[in-house]
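Page 37, top half.
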Amino acid sequence: MLLFPLFRNKLDVFIVGMKFGSGIAREPQISEGFRAEESEHTVPDPYTPPRRPTTTFRDRLNVGPSFDDFIASPPSAETSAPTSSDLASSTDDTPTSEPPLRTALVGPANRKRQITRLPTWLQTPIPTSPNYKRIKSDLRGLNLHTVCEEARCPNINDCWGGSDKSAATATIMLMGDTCTRGCRFCSVKTSRAPPPLDPHEPEHTAEALKRWGLGYVVLTSVDRDDLADGGAHHFAETIRKIKDKAPGMLVEALTGDYAGDLEMVNMVAGSGLDVYAHNVETVEALTPVVRDRRAGFRQSLRVLERAKGAGEGMITKTSIMLGLGETEDQLWEMLKELRKVGTDVVTFGQYMQPTKRHMPVDTYVTPAVFEMWRQRALDMGFLYCASGPLVRSSYKAGEAFIENVIKKRKGRRDVTMMDDVGRISQGASV
C-alpha cells in the first residue's frame, strides 16, 4: 500500500496490481483526495457518448402565447370587459375607461422581454358540442375545405355549435389553398404559380352543399392573378350549380378585386348570388402597408360600387380590421367613402397576428370601442354592422340578419307580383 502514492492514476495502480497481486486484478479503494487529483489526468472513456447541449426550443416556445391565453376563464374585476350597463351609463360618445391589459416577461433569463397577453375578451371556449363534431365529420366526408378551420376562426363554436345543422353557417374555400398575393396580415400560402383549377370543383361543391343542407353558405377564394379572368368564371359557375341544386340556399360570395377588371365583377354578381362581399381590410392610409401592392383602397371601392349596380336588391358587404394603427379620423373617412358607393353591410373585428413574420398588433381594441363604431355605422345609414373583437368577415350573427332581410325582400316582391297578376286578371275579365 505504500507504493500507491507514487502513482498518478488508476491505470498505474491497475498495472501494479497485475504485477504484484495474486494473479487477479483488483481495483484498490482510492481516497477522495486521490480521486480529485485523478480527474485532472484521466482520459475520457471513448465509449461514453458526448453530452448533448441543452436545446433552446423551450425558450423560443415560451415567447409565444400560452395555451391558457386561448381558453376563456372567469373574468376578474380588473380585466373584465365592460358590460352593456356600463356602456349605457356612459354619456360621452368616446369610451372613458379601458380595462388594463396583462403583460408577462418571457424568454431566457439573460434575454427577458415583456409581451402583452391576450385580453380576456379575446379568449373563447374550446368547441366540444355534438353538432360541431357532426359538422366537422360531414365536411371530411364531403371533401369540403372551410376558412373556418384553415384560419382557425375563434367563432367556429358559435357558427357550428348550434342545435340545428340547417342553421349553421360555413365559409367554403374555392380554387385551392395557395394565393398569388402576399398581404402582411394573411397567413394563406403564396406562390406565383399555384396548382391549376379543378374543373370538377363547381359540381362537387354544389352537390356536397346540397347534401349538407345549410341554409346560408359563404363562398370565398384565394386571389388567382395567374389566371386571365382571376378565376371569375370558376366562381360564377360554382354559384350557378349551387342555385340549380339547392334553390332555397342563400349564397354570399366573398371575392377578390380581379385586378380591377370590373367585367369579372359583373360576371360573379350576375350568377345568382344573394350577397356580394369584398373586403377593404383597412383604412386608405394603411392599405399600402397592410395589403399586397396589387390591391388598392380605391380599386376595392370600385368593385363594391359595380357589384351594387349589377342587380336590383343586391346586398354589398365589406369588412375592416382594427388594431393596425388606424386613427379615428381615418375610420370616419373610410365609412363615408363606403356609403358613397352604396355599401350595405360593414363589419369590424380585431386584427390578430398569425405568426411573427406578419404585421404586429398595434392595439387591442376594447369591446366598448367596437360598440361605439357599430353605433356610428348604423347612424350613417348602413343596413347592418357587426362589430366586436371576435367578429370576422363571415359572422353567424350578421349572416342571420342578412338572411332575414333577403327573405323579407323576396316576400315583398312576391306579394307585389301577386298584386300585379291579380290586377291583370281583373282587367282581362272586364
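Page 37, bottom half:
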Amino acid sequence: MSIFGSPNRYGPQVPSDIVQRGYDDGLAKWVTNGPCLDHVQVLGYVNAPDEPFFSRDIGRSFQLSGRTYYLFGDTFCNDAGISNNTVQLVPDRNRPKNAYYLQRDRKGCVVPLIGLNSDEQKFLKAAANEKTRIAFWCFGGIVEVTPGIGWTWYQKHIISPGGHDELSGVGIARISHNKSSLSGELSCARMPGLMFGPGQPLFGSFSALVEDDRVYLWGQQDTDVFLARVRKEHCHQLFQYEFWNGSAYVSEMEKAMPVLQDFQQGQVFKSELFGFRLPWVFVGVTKWADSMVMIGAASSIEGPWDIRPLFRAEGIIKREAYQYCMYAHPWGANARQGQLLVSWCDPWPGGVILAKVTFDTHPGTHWATIALESCSEQVAYSVANRAAEISRSSNLRFAELANPRRLRLFGTDERAVEGGLNMMRHHMGLVIKDEASQAHMGRRRGSSLTGFLAKVFSRVGREL
C-alpha cells in the first residue's frame, strides 16, 4: 500500500500531489569539455527570393503579437543609399530565411524603425560634411513586455566621413505592433534623451530578455559585460533599475560587477537545449576577431557561465573574412531534439547568414519531480540525502532543481523511475512520522514537566 494518503496517528499525512512525471526527448549533451557538436548546416543568407538583396549586419530576431521579425544594423540599399535599424518580417517560421521588408521609401531605401527627431535633423543639416549621418544600432534586440508592445535599447552613433564613429550613448524606444496593419508594420516611440552614456555600461544594447515580471539587460563597458534588471512596467525609468554586484541586485550602478568578459556581441536566452539544470544559454563572439561562434550555459541567469568555442563561422561571399554578430534564434529549431538556429554576419557586400546547429543528444529520459515546499527543512534535507543515495546505488540519476526544495529523479525507463519514487515516498513518510513522533513526545514531556513544577510550587506555597 502506498504511504501517500495513508493515515498517520502521529501527525500530518504525506502530501498526495507532490509528484510530477514526464519524458524528455534526447536533449543536447553538455559534458566536461562543453557541448558535443554533431554538425552545422548552413542555410544561406536571410532574404526572400523575390526581395532585393541588400548587404546588412546584426540580424537579431524578435517577436511581437506572435509575429517574428529580424532587426538589422546598417543596410546598404544599393543606389538608394544607406539606412540603419531596418526590419524584415518572417511570415513562416518554418522558412526562417524568407523575410520581407515592411516599408521602403520612393528611392527604394528601407525605412528605419527608429527615426531621427527634430534636433537630430537640424544637427545633420548644420554638419560641415553632408555625408555625416546618425545611426541607431539595436544589438540587444527588442523584448516584448506585454502582447504587441516591446522595448529596445539602441546605441546612438554619429558617423563622419573617413570612418570616425562617435558613440553618444544608449537610448530607449517603445516598439508596438500596428493593430490596424495586416502586414505586421511596427510603430516606434523614442523616450527623450539617453539612459546610459559612453562612460557607463551600455545596458540593454548587448542583450535583453524578459523573465517573469522583469527585464534583464546586459551591457558592455570596455571589455566587461554587466547585468541589470527592471520591472517590465518601469523600463523607461532609470531610477527603477537594479544592478548585479556579484551577489545581489543593488540600486547603485557603480557597484555592478562583470558577468562576462571579452565579448563583442552576444545573446542570452532561456532554453531547454541542455536540460533543466542549465536553462540559460549564451551565443556570441569574442573581441578577438577569430570568427568563432561561442556557446555557454548556466544554471542561473546571473551565471557563472561555462562558455566554450563551438565552431568557426565562414562567409559566403568572403569566406575567410572576419564574421561577427553571432546570435541565436530559439524559435527556429527544436531544442528538445538538440537543435539550434544561429546566425552571423558576412561583411559587405555579404549579409546575415543562417545555420542550423545539431548537437549530440542524450537518450530520451523519464523523470519524476518531487516538490518539498510543504515539508519542514529537516524532511527536505533528509529526502535530498536519500535521493543521492538511491542514485549512487542504482541506474537512476538525481539532481536538485534551481527552484528550492524540488528534486528530480531520472531513468532510462519509466519502471526504474517509479521504483526510485516509491523508495523516496517511503523514506519521506518515515521521516515525517519520526518528526511528528518527536514533536508528540516533546509535548508530553513538556506537559509532564509543567505538572511536576505545578505540584512543587503548590507544596512550597502550602509550607510557607
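Margin note: The chain has three helices and 30 strands.
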